[in-house]
Design a protein that fits this description.
globular; about 70% helix; about 200 residues; 10 helices
Length: about 200
């Protein structure tokens, strides 16, 4: 985020600067969500359990960038809600209803809100298995972000395509039992009492 503002203040962003920072914040939000989702497969395959403690932070980083992308850049700077609240909100509602890429992106943003609100240890203890089901929505959110990204660009669709395939692979790995993943990676299965915990608070699992 600091780099975005540095480029903006030093004149490195030329032309439509609102459009440029809109793309950058959206891109980084999706990157952080993808990295967050990669932590559990990496832990299961390679035993990198130290990554677990960064999962919640990375997920919240992703949520922060998406909030900036939609609430600050799109709502405030692009649609200028503070200066014309009634008219601007009508335009926003119209965009969400009529522009598919905004509809999908807005859906992904809305689905991230309960994930962020329940990302604490207290929420995990209180919700139990319901917490796991709620946070499984992060895959829906991530794919909505990919579709939003792909539909919002006119020509260069390489990055959203690559991210989409990465998400498919990560989801497939989630469906494989941990012991099978360890065996495929050439690592011995741990005894039950040494198995690392599978549930921990995070915006994305």
């Amino acid at each position: 985020m600091a780099l975005v503002w540095f480029d903006l203040l030093t004149g490195r962003i030329r032309g439509d600067w609102v459009k440029e920072i809109t793309h950058r914040t959206g891109d980084w939000g999706l990157y952080f969500i993808t990295i967050t989702l990669a932590i559990t497969p990496l832990r299961r395959v390679f035993g990198w359990n130290a990554l677990q403690k960064y999962r919640r932070m990375l997920g919240l980083f992703g949520f922060f960038y998406i909030c900036v992308h939609f609430l600050v850049i799109y709502v405030v700077l692009d649609k200028q809600v503070p200066w014309d609240p009634a008219g601007a909100w009508r335009e926003i509602v119209k965009d969400i209803a009529k522009r598919p890429y905004i509809t999908v992106g807005f859906t992904g943003f809305v689905l991230m809100i309960p994930l962020a609100l329940t990302s604490t240890k207290a929420s995990l203890r209180r919700l139990g298995r319901t917490w796991v089901r709620i946070h499984a929505l992060i895959y829906v959110t991530a794919m909505a972000g990919v579709i939003h990204f792909m539909w919002s660009v006119k020509a260069d669709r390489l990055r959203p395509t690559v991210i989409g395939w990465i998400l498919v692979v990560l989801l497939a790995l989630r469906l494989v039992p941990p012991r099978v993943l360890r065996r495929l990676a050439g690592r011995p299965a741990l005894p039950p009492h040494l198995q690392p915990p599978t549930d921990a608070p995070a915006v994305a699992r």
